[in-house]
Design brief:
Elements: H1 6-12, E1 38-44, H2 48-51, H3 55-65, E2 70-76, H4 80-89, E3 107-111, H5 118-127, E4 143-147, E5 163-165, H6 172-181, H7 188-196, E6 201-202, E7 207-211, E8 217-222, E9 230-231, E10 260-262, E11 264-265, H8 276-279, E12 284-285, H9 288-302, E13 306-310, H10 320-331, E14 337-340, H11 350-357, E15 364-369, H12 373-379, H13 385-397, E16 402-409, H14 416-433, E17 438-445, H15 462-478, E18 482-485, H16 488-498, H17 503-514, H18 527-537, H19 541-545, E19 559-560, H20 565-577, E20 603-604, E21 614-615, H21 617-628, H22 640-649, H23 683-688, E22 692-694, E23 706-714, H24 723-736, E24 753-755, E25 764-774, H25 780-790, E26 795-803, H26 810-813, E27 814-822, H27 830-842, E28 847-852, E29 855-860, E30 865-872, E31 875-881, H28 890-897, H29 902-906, E32 910-917, H30 919-922, E33 933-937, E34 942-946
Parallel strand pairs: 1-2, 1-3, 3-4, 4-5, 9-19, 10-13, 13-14, 15-16, 16-17, 17-18, 20-21, 25-32
Antiparallel strand pairs: 5-6, 7-8, 11-12, 14-22, 23-25, 23-26, 24-25, 27-31, 27-32, 28-29, 30-31, 33-34
The structure holds iron/sulfur cluster (SF4).
Length: 957
């Protein structure tokens, strides 16, 4: 492990969550930087808890680090406190794994998931010490590239990015690395030209914006030799990507901590507001056998208790039933739950619904998106009201008592009637559940996105949004429906950026300079500062939200998502008419442009489907039928909704070869789908949507067979893992080590572990204690060794002994701890220290302020400090005891004794070196599990104090 430079270590004790910056997670890749040709920083402009949850970043981390000539590290946006400290001390932003300054990398690859992370991206470039503008970077600077959904309108960030990767990154990222690895002494300009030759790479500096006399956009012109538009990269077959080898196990709780297994990419349902549904076409499903292999690898590597099957609409994955069934068969005994980002009830087999019935229900989510049938037809949402009510009834019957409904307001053509429809529909849904159910209507504001049929529509402003929210608040309130809404100003800002051109870059830069950060966080987005930035950069937000004319040049016209503008205009026309366009994976192609029908086409595991797609159902039909039920009817395993859908659409006008934009008026709604899927809303909604976990009912708890007491050290970067985070760390480590830990009973069984009292974050320890109950007998030393191997860097099990199951928890057997503190930073010589120590020892009482969340309280620390002694020129040892009313923090004693402020006292290097144990505890069973004992006085009664950790020599490893 490369040591963290001391300048950075010193910051960790001063930030809210040091765990965000440690980089010592299990699974983090270590390589010799000097032995690779390409040092690649995978950058995510969000805080660790969000960034580490993003599955795309994990895929690229795994793929890149398989190569011997590439080392990929991670770097995420520093939180406010860390950025302030870095700037105060003039320190650059560094990577997580090796603390390498960002400017020393060859490539910095940003993931652009959300427009409101752009100021974070600029902050990261700035903290790296790099010029913000691409044009000002020289030959020695790293390449700054970006990919992700927002890259499909890269123009607002064009000035700051050297290159943009459009579409799927699995193949293109290797080509980028090959180019960088084999670059000779070429200039930056030549390197960028070579990059532009890679399929899917857009180099903004090779495209010039042409404007008219009033500043209006006329075109984005390609430089000589460059294509007029850049086509996105498409991974033809998801199965061509090997099973992942690397999984990082976060030490702290992140937004989505479970491994996410992508089961398909792309969606051809055609919801007209959903950008992801267009830019990720065509639909490519993953071989279910490969999904199972990925699941096995992910569980082995992480010890996770939950897996997520990920896609834009997992309920529509053709193998959802057999895969879920097989996963439950394989892993429910190991208490592994499987979650879907959203669940369409009619997609699941009855046997799976039975499983769901028997587990605890936390809440269920459906996304009708609009309140009236008219509006759902406009946006192409498959829900009919009858199907929605039926789905709600089923959900309530299954036992859910809380149901969340996602809606959007401000959709094109919305009327008061449509808004009222939201309230009425929510009330009808609630009526299905009867008394005691809670229905929440969660309302977001529609933001038109590039590359969708609604890219030409206007977005409602802040005041109009608030008026519609108020209307809904009243109408929902009358019907006793809970109302949740997105901040109107945040949606407004998203809209200003998302359809902007290069002129918006000036505003983003000014907002960054004014201090805007984490703008996607409602509580942190500083709207007055953004208004100031818009004014100072001359941006009129109303112009950004206006409707666009169909023949007007758009800033992203030179970005080719595959789906043609002509198709989007046909879809817009169909929306106006309220006509639904069929799903091309089960019906005929409607010529959106995403497929070339040679290599690129829909790949499904349906037995049959649209022409031009590849249907691999027969490959696995026999296997899947065996998994789901005894019925060997071909295709019996496919989602139930698929069959309903297929049957209905066979008679649709589209299936009869009629145009989707010009059907007879009477046939307007005849393509209505019956599948009542909730879908996923837009991409941001998808990212934040709560999931439903499916798992087998927890097995009855097995009485523990034995208890093992572990002593472990927590040194180096691991000292910043908090006590709460330790529970996660040990739980997943025990699962990876296949330790047969015993579980508590109840709906949420927990591993039976008991820790010694929490260590202050930032303090090191040689002697933490943990009791683990095992469901079956195991050899303590082997158990300790196996566990030690799975712990993060800096943590190591030193001793494992069996103790009686009747023993009390470690905290009841301990009298206190001995701490060693390094005082070299406080500027006192040894005689001053001795004098203060003597005063403390002679004092009858020593008041200190104890700080807690409930407030400050003054306590007498004197009886709680059994010994204070200088053991080196500026080294102190402190024996701190537990009294009947708690204890005192060493840092509070040090603050009072040496007149330090609380922050400075907490930052002092502190190490717990010995356990002070009660006399009765050490003799209870085999005696030595807390070390050899000596006796001292303690606040009430007599305590036994261990003389140290002498038996550590017989450590487990
Ligand atoms: S080209 Fe046809 S088959 Fe391919 S995604 Fe578009 S509509 Fe579907």
């Amino acid at each position: 492990m490369r040591m963290m430079p001391t300048g950075y270590e010193a910051l960790l004790g001063r930030v809210e969550k040091p765990g965000r910056y440690l980089g010592n997670e299990k699974g983090a890749v270590r390589k010799d930087i000097d032995a690779v040709a390409v040092h690649f920083a995978l950058a995510f402009p969000e805080v660790y808890e969000i960034a580490q949850s993003h599955p795309g970043l994990q895929i690229l981390y795994d793929l890149l680090n398989r190569r011997d000539d590439v080392y990929a590290e991670r770097v995420y946006a520093p939180w406010f406190d860390m950025e302030t400290l870095l700037r105060e001390r003039g320190l650059p932003l560094v990577s997580l794994e090796t603390c390498t300054p960002l400017s020393d990398f060859d490539v910095i690859g940003f993931s652009l998931q959300y427009e409101l992370t752009y100021t974070n991206l600029l902050a990261m470039i700035d903290l790296a010490g790099l010029p913000l503008e691409s044009a000002l970077r020289g030959d020695d600077h790293p390449l700054v590239i970006a990919g992700g959904p927002c890259a499909f309108n890269p123009e607002p960030m064009a000035e700051f990015l050297d290159a943009v990767l459009l579409g799927d990154g699995e193949e293109a990222i290797h080509e980028i690395c090959d180019l960088v690895a084999h670059r000779a002494d070429v200039s930056r300009a030549e390197l960028l030209e070579s990059l532009a030759a890679i399929d899917g790479i857009y180099v903004p500096s090779l495209y010039r914006v042409r404007r008219g006399p009033r500043g209006q956009l006329l075109a984005v012109d390609a430089a000589a030799g460059q294509p007029r538009s850049v086509r996105k990269r498409t991974l033809v077959d998801l199965d061509s990507v090997p099973v992942a080898e690397t999984y990082i196990v976060p030490n702290l709780r992140v937004v989505h901590g479970r491994p996410s297994l992508e089961v398909m990419r792309g969606c051809v349902k055609g919801c007209r507001f959903c950008q992801a549904g267009y830019i990720y076409r065509p639909l490519r499903e993953r071989d279910p056998q490969r999904v199972l292999e990925n699941a096995q690898a992910a569980l082995e590597a992480t010890g996770a208790e939950e897996l997520s099957l990920l896609s834009l609409s997992t309920g529509d994955y053709s193998c959802v039933n057999p895969v879920l069934t097989e996963l439950m068969n394989r892993y429910s005994g190991d208490r592994v739950a499987v979650s879907l980002p959203s669940t369409r009830v009619d997609a699941l087999a009855p046997s799976l619904l039975e499983q769901i019935k028997r587990v605890r229900k936390t809440g269920f989510t459906l996304a009708p998106e609009a309140g009236s049938q008219r509006m759902r037809d406009i946006i192409q949402k498959e829900y009919g009201e009858t199907e929605l009510i039926e789905a709600a009834r089923q959900i309530f019957e299954l036992g859910w008592r809380a149901l969340k409904l996602y809606f959007m307001i401000g959709l094109p053509g919305e009327t008061e009637e449509d808004l009222l429809g939201i309230a009425k529909l929510s009330a009808r849904v609630a009526a299905e559940g009867g008394n005691g159910v809670e229905v929440t209507a969660s309302i977001s504001t529609f933001v038109p996105k590039p590359h969708t049929p609604f890219q030409w529509t206007a977005q409602i402003g802040v005041e109009e949004t608030r008026a519609r929210q108020q209307y809904l608040r009243n109408e929902l309130g009358k019907r006793k429906i809970r109302f949740k809404w997105h901040d109107a100003r945040t949606s407004h800002l998203e809209g200003v950026i998302s359809r902007g051109g290069r002129e918006v870059g000036r505003t983003i830069r000014r907002a960054f300079e004014l201090g805007c950060r984490f703008d996607g966080w409602t509580e942190h987005c500083d709207h007055p500062l953004w208004q100031q930035a818009m004014q100072e950069s001359g941006l009129d937000p109303t112009q950004q939200l206006r409707r666009r004319f169909l023949d007007e040049p758009l800033p992203w016209d030179h970005i080719d998502s595959g789906v043609t503008k002509k198709f989007l205009q046909r879809e817009l026309a169909a929306a106006v008419e309220g006509i639904l366009t069929p799903d091309c994976s089960i019906d005929r192609c409607t010529y959106c442009g995403a497929c070339d029908f040679r290599e690129i086409r829909n790949i499904t595991y349906h037995l049959q489907g649209a022409k031009g797609g590849e249907h691999r159902g027969e490959v696995i039909d026999h296997w899947a039928s065996g998994v789901v039920d005894k019925d060997d009817t071909p295709g019996a395993w496919e989602p139930r909704g698929w069959h309903k859908l297929h049957t209905r659409t066979e008679n649709s006008p589209i299936a009869r070869g009629e145009s989707p934009i010009d059907p007879p008026v009477a046939a307007k709604h005849s393509t209505r789908r019956t599948a009542n899927g909730p879908g996923l809303g837009n991409a941001e909604e998808w990212l934040s949507a709560s999931s439903e976990a499916l798992s087998a009912p927890p097995p009855a708890p097995i009485p523990p067979a034995m208890r093992i007491r572990l002593q472990y050290s927590k040194l180096g970067r691991s000292r910043f893992i908090s006590h709460l985070e330790l529970i996660e760390v040990f739980t997943s480590a025990m699962r990876r080590a296949h330790i047969p830990v015993a579980y508590s009973g109840g709906y949420h069984p927990m591993p039976r572990m008991r820790f010694s009292p929490g260590l202050p974050v930032g303090a090191e320890s040689d002697c933490e204690v943990l009791d683990i109950d095992l469901a079956e007998a195991a050899q303590p030393q082997a158990t300790g060794l196996a566990l030690s191997r799975e712990l993060p860097e800096g943590m190591r099990v030193w001793r494992a002994t069996e103790v009686s199951l009747r023993r009390t928890s470690p905290d009841r057997e301990l009298a206190g701890f001995c701490y060693r503190i390094d005082l070299s930073s406080i500027g006192r010589d040894s005689s001053e220290l001795d004098s203060l120590i003597a005063q403390f020892t002679a004092a009858e009482a020593f008041p200190v302020v104890r700080h807690s969340k409930k407030g400050d309280k003054t306590i007498d620390a004197r009886p709680l400090v059994a010994r204070i002694e200088r053991v080196g020129p500026t080294q102190l040892e402190l024996d701190v005891l537990f009294g009947e009313r708690g204890s005192v923090k060493p840092s509070d004693v040090l603050a009072a004794l040496f007149s330090l402020d609380r922050t400075a006292a907490r930052a002092l290097p502190l190490r717990k070196t010995r356990i002070l144990a009660l006399a009765g505890a050490t003799s209870a069973t085999n005696g030595d599990d807390l070390g050899a004992a000596t006796t001292v006085a303690r606040p009430q009664g007599t305590a036994t104090v261990t003389s140290g950790l002498a038996p550590v020599a017989a450590s487990v490893d």
